[in-house]
Amino acid sequence: MDDVLNRLAGWLLRAVVLVAGLVVFLSLLTAVLLLAALWGLRALWARITGRPVTPWVMGVDPRSAWRAAASRGAWRRQGQAPAEPEQPPTPPQTGAAGPLMRPLPGTEDVTDVQPRAPKSD
């Protein structure tokens, strides 16, 4: 009798874990399908209205964290003059590079490269 109860408890535990895993899988699948449908409707609406289909992006500049850490003074030497006040960010450029692409600071000082227009495919 003890063996039968142990087997029954084992199968019951397996069934509960299987059902829990199935619930998690189906909930994640539902969330992904809802996001995909929402993105598809958004893209369809952009096509219908004649606007460009823009991706969902986080408008975060990764250089801002570096600037903030470098301006705290932890990496400056004691005798070094304080850093210049930070320049306001340049407005986002539009075009082939995308709406959030800005030139890196100091690129206007590069002299050993001949600029070319981007290739159009």
From TrEMBL:
Biased segments, Low complexity type: 69-84
Superkingdom as given in the UniProt entry: Bacteria
Annotated segments matching region Disordered: 69-121
Bilayer-spanning residue ranges: 12-41
Keyword Transmembrane helix assigned: yes
Record protein name field: Uncharacterized protein
Keywords: Membrane, Transmembrane, Transmembrane helix
Organism, scientific name: Simplicispira suum
